[in-house]
Amino acid sequence: MKPVSDKIANHGSVAPEPHDRLALPTPQAHFYRMNPGKTLVGAGAGLLDRALCVLGTVLFSQIPEFMQQYLQRLGGHLDEARRQLEQFQHTAAQSGLTLEQLINQITANADLAVTKLGGVMTEAIARVDTLAVAQSAIQHASLWSRPFVFLQHSDTAIVRATWSVFKPAVPTTLEGLGYALCGMLTLLAVFHLGIKYPINRTMSRRAQRRATRV
């Protein structure tokens, strides 16, 4: 092997040895090469985040659509209840009475079947009032308060009937897009703050305890 001085004299610079041309692995690449499990965990966490984003977007974007279909069915029930109430009012008017007076006379009747008819009329009045209040409250609620107003005034039977024929739809309104974004952020927050963070903290504490014991 020639001395370094001869190499400089012949070539003007020091020729690199063959092993100098090999690229040394970076610390990060060496870390992942020695810990393939970390790479898999990181990839799995990324896929889970994407899945939660999609799930939250799909689920929450259907809330406005479900409430809209519920309102349509609610409006049908309200129209039917009003028609029934108008028939009772027409019957009372033919007798020269108000509906309240007719109900009082029917309720005071000794015949049990006739008395039950008075109860039907009273329920018809209450039904119209309840459905009308619910429809107005849901329709005039703000964007973010509408789900809570819906839960407060929803009718269980109508909810079940709406769900039985519910058809998901792609959100095309600002309301639907807003709920989709809210759903994505909600599921990510629940997962990271409610599940992932406590688990990581518990595992970190256990690792520290083991290190102190050693």
Structure description:
With 214 residues, the protein is mainly alpha-helical. The two termini are 51 Å apart. It has helices spanning 4-11, 27-34, 36-94, 99-107, 112-139, 146-153, 156-164, 174-213. Mean pLDDT is 79; it is low at 18-24 and 27-32. The protein is elongated and about 95 Å long. It contains 8 helices and no strands. It has one domain (27-209). It is 79% helix and 0% strand. α4 packs antiparallel against α5.
Descriptive labels:
elongated; 214 residues; mainly alpha; 79% helix
Brief synopsis:
This protein is mostly helical and 214 residues long. The chain has helices at 4-11, 27-34, 36-94, 99-107, 112-139, 146-153, 156-164, 174-213.
SSE topology sketch:
Layout: H1 4-11, H2 27-34, H3 36-94, H4 99-107, H5 112-139, H6 146-153, H7 156-164, H8 174-213
Helix pairs in contact: 3-5, 3-7, 3-8, 4-5, 5-6
What string, H for helix and E for strand, traces the elements in order? HHHHHHHH
Count of extended strands: 0
Mean pLDDT score? 79
Structural class: mainly alpha
How far is the N terminus from the C terminus?
A: 51 Å
How many helices? The count is 8
Q: What's the assembly state of these chains? A: single chain
Overall tally of structural domains? 1
Largest sheet: none
Radius of gyration from the alpha-carbon trace, in angstroms: 37 Å
